[in-house]
Write a structure and sequence with these properties.
With 153 residues, the protein is mainly alpha-helical. It is built from five helices and no strands. α1 (6-30) packs antiparallel against α4 (106-139).
Length: 153
């Protein structure tokens, strides 16, 4: 079953990941002179992980079908979804604890914006993980993988 809306979702995921990368890089750089919170660093890692995972999720089914096993795709989706969930929740707790709710400090504003985009990315990856799980469940024991499921053009 081909999902023609998977590629636009992937594009939105990539754009949001780059936005979070920029916001978290700014927050990590400007938080303090010698350190940055691990929650900010984790979202920075997660955005880079997402870009690499999206390269696999977009290119493998279309150009390298041997590498696009249905369980590999489901694993990449699920791990990325878990990373975004853990990252945005941890950063939200930190921002609440340091009192960033009504702050005009630029780092707080950037971190809050990055956290909102992180939550949106979690929702997007939740949706694509569910689609990948439905594909795995629907294909049963079939050996062949339908590359059109992941990226329909």
């Amino acid at each position: 079953m081909a999902f023609a809306y998977t590629l636009p979702i992937r594009i939105v995921q990539a754009v949001f990941a780059v936005i979070v990368l920029g916001l978290m890089a700014y927050a990590a750089d400007d938080w303090a002179y010698w350190w940055s919170p691990s929650q900010v660093n984790f979202l920075l890692f997660t955005s880079i992980w997402t870009i690499l995972a999206l390269l696999y999720l977009i290119l493998a089914p279309t150009h390298y079908p041997v590498a696009a096993h249905k369980y590999g795709i489901l694993f990449a989706e699920a791990v990325t979804m878990i990373f975004w969930f853990a990252g945005f929740v941890a950063l939200a707790v930190l921002l609440n604890n340091v009192g960033c709710g009504h702050s005009t400090w630029g780092v707080c504003r950037a971190s809050i914006a990055g956290d909102v985009f992180g939550a949106l990315l979690w929702l997007l990856f939740l949706a694509t993980t569910v689609m990948a799980a439905m594909h795995v469940r629907g294909s049963g024991r079939a050996k062949a993988h339908d590359p059109a499921m992941e990226v329909a053009v």
